[in-house]
From TrEMBL:
It comes from the Bacteria. GO terms for biological process: cell wall organization. This is ATP-grasp domain-containing protein. SUPFAM superfamilies: Glutathione synthetase ATP-binding domain-like (SSF56059), PreATP-grasp domain (SSF52440). One of its GO terms (molecular function) is D-alanine-D-alanine ligase activity. Belongs to the D-alanine--D-alanine ligase family. Keywords: ATP-binding, Cell wall biogenesis/degradation, Ligase, Nucleotide-binding.
Amino acid sequence: MRIGITFDLREDYAREGYDEEQTAEFDGIETILSIESTLQALGHSTERIGQAHALTRRLLHGDRWDMVFNIAEGMYGFGRQALVPTLLDAYQIPYTFSDPLALTVTLHKATAKRIVRDSGIHTPDFGVVETAADIAGVALPFPLFIKPVAEGTSKGISAASKIRNSTELRTGCEQLLARHRQPVLVETYLPGREFTVGILGTGAASRAIGVMEIQLQGGPEPEIYSYDNKKYYEERVLAQLATDATGDAAAQLALAAWKVLGGRDGGRVDVRCDAEGNVNFLEANPLAGLHPKDSDLPLLGRLTGMSYVALIEQIVASASSRTMEVR
């Protein structure tokens, strides 16, 4: 196939003056080169398209592709991840990964939690702070955990995210509201084991390829899988497969959440245990990172014996099978 690749390149935004945290979700050139070379090794021809503005120009120019490999995150608003898929839908161009609805729903973590909760899937009790005036109305027992409602890569998460009293709640929420300019998700803190579950496929064809337990190895933020702990994961994080009964339960819960949220082709679901060891849904990532060495989904693949080439091949095969069904 002739496959275009849509992405937000971190280096491009850095040149425009955006800082490291603002561009944390975007991909470096290594990831783009890895996807590009892998697709070519699988027999496809590739074209780099870039972000939504570049895609718009190419579409208006009349360019078309058999498929687009989409990893574009977008920059602004709750619909930022949905922008590229929406444009491609308008031109009836097939693409990898989830559709605009699933991407918007999962980006807004509170909306995703409402959907999985209504489907009978366990998730921590939560509230949403839209403005500082809402803080006094939070009626959840301490300790709590706070984070921006629509960020990835643990942006906005630090040691201060674990909240022990009303003073910390007010300070933490006010700081997140000011820095990230979006609502704050407030949820019951879960003290148990933490997992990320890799998933491939769509709907009934979805399957969990592995469950990876996240174990923090000390450091300045020993309880929190924070932005800094993710950044320095090689020194601070031990990631290994969880194959026990709790790991199996995490896989089942993640797969159920993936299906009800409408995830497609591949991604991850984050799960954490409460004090009794029961697994709970935290969030879903339907545009999981694909750096061959550093990203969790390729790492999960390696731990289960799946090469990077095989991972990309199965993602494209899943998207192709959906395209054939529509036609």
